[in-house]
């Protein structure tokens, strides 16, 4: 009888181990790609476009969240890829202005819902909020992972670069919206938040989500900062780009990617990468 019980226990552990190995991770990159500004000269978008796309492909991004993408950049990122997308231009809710878009592998994920809201007192219509200089948005998508057979949500945003109150209130609004839209499902929240980790805007998010950098199983990889200002000699101290998750995910890897070519970065921000598993 004891031998039989030991056999059953071993079989149970083996099945559990197999099930864990069978689960497929999700690779996510968030990346402020810098808007298409001809005055950037050698760093203008046409000179960077192929490198940005190559980076996403090399790191096997299942989901690519971008900020500052104008319509032509938005289009370019989906050309000759498996990406479908969620997102609108912030100026008119269509194609005018910058996108905070979410690109996802359409061969793996099925969109079940999605949308965009404005970071303002009137989130359902194009608008500026509080002391913000520009309209700001958060796009989101609910996806079904056909590989792991689970639903989850991704939210992607870009806070105002000037308005202190706007950043604080944006964080509060995002907290409210995520709790309304995804009260029980696994959630990923990404973005260029234009604030460093010690600020109130970050502590508001950390009151209900976890900073992927702080909970990664493997040690964080790459520099601390994410803003380089197209300066290859930047000290990379300012961390303003983030990925957060709720307890529906565990973070296996976290990295700030400092890829470059010919001593030039592909944007004035560095991309942030995570590899996630469902809990």
TrEMBL record:
Residues 29-269 form the Endonuclease/exonuclease/phosphatase domain. Residues 1-19 form the signal peptide. Pfam families: Exo_endo_phos. One of its GO terms (molecular function) is endonuclease activity. InterPro entries: CCR4/nocturin_mRNA_transcr, Endo/exonu/phosph_ase_sf, Endo/exonuclease/phosphatase. The keyword Ribonucleoprotein does not apply. This is Endonuclease. The lineage of its organism: Bacteria, Pseudomonadati, Bacteroidota, Sphingobacteriia, Sphingobacteriales.
């Amino acid at each position: 009888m004891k031998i039989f019980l030991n056999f059953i226990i071993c079989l149970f552990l083996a099945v559990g181990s197999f099930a864990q190995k069978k689960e497929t991770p999700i690779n996510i990159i968030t990346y402020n790609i810098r808007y298409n500004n001809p005055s950037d000269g050698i760093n203008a978008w046409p000179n960077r476009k192929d490198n940005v796309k190559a980076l996403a492909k090399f790191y096997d991004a299942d989901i690519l969240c971008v900020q500052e993408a104008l319509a032509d950049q938005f289009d370019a990122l989906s050309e000759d890829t498996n990406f479908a997308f969620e997102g609108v231009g912030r100026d008119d809710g269509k194609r005018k202005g910058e996108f905070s878009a979410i690109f996802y592998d359409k061969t793996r994920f099925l969109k079940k819902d999605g949308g965009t809201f404005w970071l303002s007192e009137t989130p359902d219509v194009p608008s500026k909020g509080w002391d913000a200089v520009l309209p700001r948005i958060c796009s989101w998508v609910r996806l079904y992972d056909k590989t792991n057979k689970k639903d989850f949500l991704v939210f992607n945003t870009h806070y105002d670069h000037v308005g202190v109150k706007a950043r604080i209130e944006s964080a509060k609004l995002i907290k409210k919206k995520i709790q309304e839209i995804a009260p029980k499902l696994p959630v990923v929240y990404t973005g260029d938040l234009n604030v460093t980790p010690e600020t109130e805007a970050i502590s508001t998010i950390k009151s209900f989500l976890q900073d992927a950098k702080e909970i990664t199983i493997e040690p964080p990889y790459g520099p601390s900062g994410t803003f380089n200002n197209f300066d290859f000699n930047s000290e990379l101290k300012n961390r303003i780009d983030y990925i957060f998750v709720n307890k529906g995910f565990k973070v296996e890897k976290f990295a700030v990617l400092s890829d470059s070519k010919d001593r030039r970065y592909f944007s004035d921000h560095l991309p942030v990468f995570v590899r996630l598993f469902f809990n």
